[in-house]
Amino acid sequence: MVRRLLGYTVAIFVILLGWHITSLVIGSPALPTPIDTIPMLQRYAAQLAPDFLTSFYRVIVAMVIGTVIAMPLGLAIGRTPKLDAFLAPILYILYPIPKIVLLPVLLVLLGLADAPKIVLIAITIFFQVLVTVRDAAKAVPEQAVLSVRSLGASRLDIFKDVVVPASLPDLFTALRISSGTAVAILFFAEAIAGRTGLGYFIVDSWAMLNYPRMFAGIIVMAFLGVLLYEIFDFAERRLTRWRKVGQ
Amino acid sequence: MLNYENVSLTYPGTSTPVKALDRYSLTVAKGEPVALIGPSGCGKSTSLLLATGLLSPSEGEVLVDGKPVNKPRRETALILQDFGLLPWKTVFENAALGLCIRRFSKAERKTRVERALEQVGLSDFAKMYPGELSGGMRQRLALARTLALDVDVMLMDEPLSALDAMLREGLQDLLLTLWQQRGYTQVLVTHSIEEAVFLGRRIVVLSPRPGRVMTIIDNPKMGTFDYRGTEGFYRTCQLVRKALKAETSRSEGSSHGA
């Protein structure tokens, strides 16, 4: 814990230093220095705090929904060759489409509030998790399945005792990687529609040509990304304790 | 107790079907320990899977306790080469796995698992994960998992082949002790001649693929720990070695060692 905090402290220092030097070299009002930016965090705290909470709520709810739907489906596809033969081509066609293109449709159908943003992120996460979990379920060592089956395990037992735990590490890798994508989509969706969330705060600052305010929003958004990463990392360490031991 | 009656099994294979067993017949009496030995790919493992009901024969019949097996039977245990442990479960949970699947009560699980872990000397490691154990300890854990159940047929597929020589002898002693205590019917697949002679009252020599029973060597003196050092042990090993050699040279003569 102490080492983690120390790591982040050093990282923040290095980033701020790099930012400061870059800003001085470029010398444009569009890239203010950290010294100009950081006081803005305090000045606009009354707006930033609720926007942060709104964005956090949207992204975490969306990721949970996407995962909860994709996980069982991915496990089932990965362990059922017939289902896989039918669904895999569909998946290959839909997977590479950037889901952000659905934003206009979702805005028309679901309005400008939370729903279209949550659904858009959930769809993206759904595909990422589905593909990862399916591959992980496919790769479960057959010996492990065989030995549990020889004990008389039902299909459900095998899922519960073998396939699910074997897929968890890959699931969390997918979640950590896609939390970056999720924040990017969140920014885009909030920038385009509605008047809430960090995405809106950043674009609104840009419209006012208030670059220090804009960068304050970016800092908070970076914090949101780190928070998501840490949440998934924490959950992973709790749920996959066995991986810590020497192997 | 365990009967193979003219069993043949053909795997689909990637390009051409592979015949793993060909008219394989063997009877193992109740409480008898048998060792199966033969060249690699002779269908030793296949014959064990057939006995568990995880595989079905293409022809012939496999009977356990007079009944054809077509699904895993509660009293039959299978131990695989890689021990079949689940890395995400603790030693206790791994040992309790069979009991969990059979829906034993929590109290019953605790009593049985504690006793089984004690029998294999793992009581102090109940909370660890398999990743923290040595190879020999993992193998003992795999044994504990079956000991927690009421097993009357014990099938083992090269259970000790991943272990070094010193460890192997210790575990062979443990296997002998457990068999003597429990009196289950035991089929041990191995490619070690000494192991076959130490643990098999009969040693069944199989032909290369497709596997058939070629020779059966009686070994009535097995069953004591100091058997290893005796003249009889050495002579039986020689007999098995000769039988294996005859098998190998015959297959090389006919198919150029394919």
Notable features of this structure?
heterodimer, A: mainly alpha, MetI-like fold, 83% helix, 0% strand, globular, B: 258 residues, Rossmann fold, six-stranded mixed beta sheet, 8 helices
Describe the structure in your own words.
The complex is a heterodimer of chains A (247) and B (258). Chain A has 247 residues and is mostly helical. Helices cover 83% and strands 0% of the residues of chain A. Chain A has one domain (51-241): Orthogonal Bundle (MetI-like fold). Chain A is built from 10 helices and no strands. In chain A, helix 3 (45-79) runs antiparallel to helix 8. With 258 residues, chain B is an alpha/beta fold. Chain B is built from 8 helices and 10 strands. In chain B, a hairpin with a 2-residue loop joins strand 4 and strand 5. In chain B, helix 4 packs across helix 5 and helix 7 packs across helix 8. Chains A and B meet through helix 7 and helix 8 of A and strand 6 and helix 3 of B.
Structure described in brief:
The complex is a heterodimer of chains A (247) and B (258). Chain A has 247 residues and is an all-alpha fold. Chain A is built from ten helices and no strands.
* Total number of helices of chain B: 8
Strand order of the largest sheet of chain B: 6-7-8-3-9-10
The CATH architecture of the largest domain in chain B can be named as 3-Layer(aba) Sandwich
Task: Could you tell me the CATH topology label of chain A.
Answer: MetI-like fold
Find the count of extended strands of chain B (DSSP E, 2+ residues).
10
